[in-house]
Automatic annotation (TrEMBL):
Protein name (database record): Serine palmitoyltransferase small subunit B
Organism placement in taxonomy: Eukaryota, Metazoa, Chordata, Craniata, Vertebrata
Pfam families: SPT_ssu-like
Subcellular location: Endoplasmic reticulum membrane
Bilayer topology: Multi-pass membrane protein
Main location (coarse class): endoplasmic reticulum
Keywords, comma-separated and alphabetical: Endoplasmic reticulum, Lipid metabolism, Membrane, Sphingolipid metabolism, Transferase, Transmembrane, Transmembrane helix
Listed GO CC annotations: endoplasmic reticulum membrane; serine palmitoyltransferase complex
Family affiliation: Belongs to the SPTSS family. SPTSSB subfamily.
Entry function: Component of the serine palmitoyltransferase multisubunit enzyme (SPT) that catalyzes the initial and rate-limiting step in sphingolipid biosynthesis by condensing L-serine and activated acyl-CoA (most commonly palmitoyl-CoA) to form long-chain bases. The SPT complex is composed of SPTLC1, SPTLC2 or SPTLC3 and SPTSSA or SPTSSB. Within this complex, the heterodimer consisting of SPTLC1 and SPTLC2/SPTLC3 forms the catalytic core. Within the SPT complex, SPTSSB stimulates the catalytic activity and plays a role in substrate specificity.
Keyword Lipid metabolism recorded: yes
Length: 80
């Protein structure tokens, strides 16, 4: 894919985004507020997923290991 067609594809996607969100009807200052809000929300969701999803997956994995009878790694074995 050459640069010209990629540039055209990105422009086409941007136009589709403006049509779907009706942001082509907004004034420039409204677009700035709208895009700033949307980007802020996207960054917050991605950060939250990055921080909390691995913790929840790890907890669920440990729960299912315990449910099926496997021992935890930090369990001390009793030696006779």
């Amino acid at each position: 894919m050459d640069i010209k067609s990629m540039k055209y594809s990105l422009y086409w996607l941007y136009c589709q985004f403006e049509l779907i969100t009706c942001s082509y009807l907004m004034e420039p200052w409204e677009k700035l507020l709208f895009y700033t809000f949307n980007i802020t929300m996207l960054v917050m969701v991605l950060y939250t997923a990055y921080v909390f999803v691995p913790v929840h997956v790890s907890t669920a994995f440990q729960f299912f290991l315990h449910l099926f009878g496997n021992q935890h790694e930090n369990t001390v074995s009793v030696v006779k």
